[in-house]
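Q: Sequence in, structure out?
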Amino acid sequence: MAGKEYYYTLRAVNTSYETGHTSGTISANSGVARSVPGNTLLIVPSDPDLTGKIEITVPEGAREVLEAANNSYGEDLKFNLARTAAAGLKNAIYGVRIGIRTARTDKDVSDFSFSRPITVSFPLEGALAAARGFPAAPLPAIAAADELAVFWHNGVEWINLGGVANAANTSVFARTKNIGEFAVRSVVKATEFEIFSITPKKVFTPNGDGCNDLITFQYQNPKAASNIKGKIFDIYGAFVAEMKGPESYSGITFNSNCAAPNLADDSLIWDGRDSDGDYAGMGVYIYQIESEGKVHHGTVVIAR
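A: Exactly. Output:
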């Protein structure tokens, strides 16, 4: 917000989300927060409108790009957080825009994504708990895991990133490589493996221009099934390509005037190329995703 200086504190956090002592206060507007190599950053906003409502965990391997020596912007980068109304997301409980800006020149970085997933966490307490009618005490796991999900807006539509309760059942979180607008909302979770989102919606235009170059098949995997595979075939049944996980596209660039690609953790992605690396021609293609001995299939369209 114009005229305001936002401050953040840092705490070390391990893979079980156990935190260490809080650091001194660091200005998000005057420079990027740094950590001891090997540590994870936990960004905790102290602005009254955001305190206790969102936390961002940036792991080693993702945080380095915030430093001038490790990015193409020539200066350190900083987080810029602001509350939003989550417009267009029905029954949203709370919305926050996560932005990245240059620390010295204070310019917005719009075509940014992390090389490794960060964790966006909404504590189930304070205003969030009150909005849901939840008690302030830690919630049963069923309440967080089965009723809440984190959503991300890709510039065109809201994408369900899923939601997981932390070990103490005090927050719901999702992992993503993207920045932008996030919100938390109640949902009905799947009990079996399910493809619940295809973005863009069935039609994409892979040609390397940074607009709709990827199509993402996002799934819910409540039984933690392993060895999930996806394949693409043409309409005659000939094999075209294997789908890949989001880690294969961590360095992708995209046009900031278009919808950002969905690089959610629980997803399979096709970049429109065949097994030789050439772009497939226009037309209808069949996808097959196999999990737990079942095959889920449908069609997508490449347009130009």
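The longest helix spans residues 126-132.
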